[in-house]
UniProtKB/TrEMBL annotation:
Top-level taxonomic group: Bacteria
Pfam families per UniProt: DUF7691
Source organism: Streptomyces olivoverticillatus
Identification of the protein by name: DUF7691 domain-containing protein
Positions of the DUF7691 domain: 1-197
Length: 198
């Protein structure tokens, strides 16, 4: 099975703060901006919706209102939270990670470690959603805080050309993408990275 990553440079505190904030303004803004995308996603998930999953708009409302959540259809709340990160943040290029097989993230993490880049890893982008959202199989979710991004960039700068040349070309290309994400996040005060694997 192949996966992909969707990544956003975003103020993680702001994005997490949207969970349970109850903001009608946020719901209206996302509905107006992404309404067609949400409708298209509902068509894709029509089978699950017919079996009782919330629609995209219903899931978004539940996330913003802090529940209630139907654990059986947790995936919809993950995609709703992804919309929130998209609304608040800047989309990052994840081409080095789409599509990929499950072992790929582990290979990239091994490459990061070999360069001394221990502040960040890509495998957590397949972990679970922030609380209180229910655990979903997909999408996976992970974060790099602003501090992790700063430390990861410092570790990249401390690595040598010799270390980098020892890496498989595709792994190095993926790590260079990670460096680009961190640089983009660091260009805005308080921004980190939110990653969704699906």
């Amino acid at each position: 099975m192949s996966y992909g990553l969707s990544l956003y440079a975003v103020d993680l505190t702001l994005a997490r703060g949207a969970i349970g904030c109850g903001s009608k303004q946020l719901l209206d803004m996302i509905g107006k901006t992404y309404g067609q995308h949400i409708t298209r996603d509902d068509e894709y998930f029509a089978y699950e919706i017919a079996k009782g999953a919330p629609t995209g708009h219903e899931a978004l409302r539940a996330v913003v209102e802090g529940g209630p959540f139907d654990k059986e259809h947790a995936f919809q709340y993950g995609y709703a939270y992804k919309r929130i990160c998209e609304a608040y943040g800047d989309r990052l290029d994840g081409n080095s990670f789409s599509p990929f097989r499950s072992a790929w993230l582990m290979h990239v993490d091994e490459g990061l470690t070999s360069l001394g880049m221990t502040a960040v890893s890509v495998s957590p982008f397949m972990y679970s959603l922030p609380r209180p959202l229910p655990r979903a199989e997909l999408p996976g979710y992970g974060e790099w805080t602003p501090e992790q991004c700063a430390q990861g960039l410092a570790q990249w700068e401390a690595s040598t050309d010799e270390q980098r040349q020892r890496l498989d070309f595709e792994v190095l290309e993926a790590i260079e993408s990670c460096v680009g994400w961190m640089r983009q996040a660091r260009s805005k005060e308080g921004y980190g990275i939110a990653g969704f694997g699906s």
